[in-house]
Amino acid sequence: MPRISTLTVAYPITTNKLTAPAAQPYPAAATPCTSTCPGVYVEAIGMVTASKFDLPQGTLDLLILRVVALGPIHGYAIAQRIQQISRNALQVQQGSLYPALHRLQYKKFLAAKWAESETGRDAKFYELTAKGRAQLKSETESWARLTELVALILQNPEGELS
Fold first, then answer.
1. Residue 36, helix vs strand vs coil
2. Given this model, what pLDDT does residue 105 score?
């Protein structure tokens, strides 16, 4: 399904009314936003077809647990590792990754401690807890069973649509 990759407001809104400063020239790519109020301009980057896969809901936690099971790792490296293992098909955005890490830490599946990263900066390193190891095992088994059942349904010749 096509999606809008970026939509940015060309100029900040300075009052409660949706207006843009009239004295400044608008960029050539800016077009009026007709769905709201006159005077608000947006820069539309365009429509793109996703060449990457979106993660089905609930799988990000499993992927994070699997990557962290390999050893202590910081958030940015988790995202890079998922992208690398998936051959660039999966890209985890920070807006999804860090809330998931906090959620897993809250559930006691991950433990975290601050340490120096390979770049010399302080970073939060995550490790799997015993509870996290059990969760990873359980979720991996559930995922394997689910994919087996979905494959069975998709490959069933009796289920062919005419």
1. coil
2. 97
Element (H, E) at 13: none
Q: Which residues of the chain have pLDDT under 70?
A: 1-54, 159-162
Q: For 37-55, b where at least 16 C-beta lie within 10 A, e where not — what string?
A: eeebbbeeeeeeeeeeeeb
For Cα atoms 46, 49, 54, give the angle at the middle one, nearest 5 degrees: 120
Give the residue range(s) of CATH 1.10.10.10 domains in the chain.
Answer: 59-159
pTM of the model: 0.64
CA–CA gap between residue 77 and residue 104 (Å, rounded): 17
Write the DSSP symbol of residue 159: G
**Candidates 3.40.718.10, 3.40.1190.20, 1.10.10.10, 3.30.470.10; correct CATH number of 59-159?**
1.10.10.10
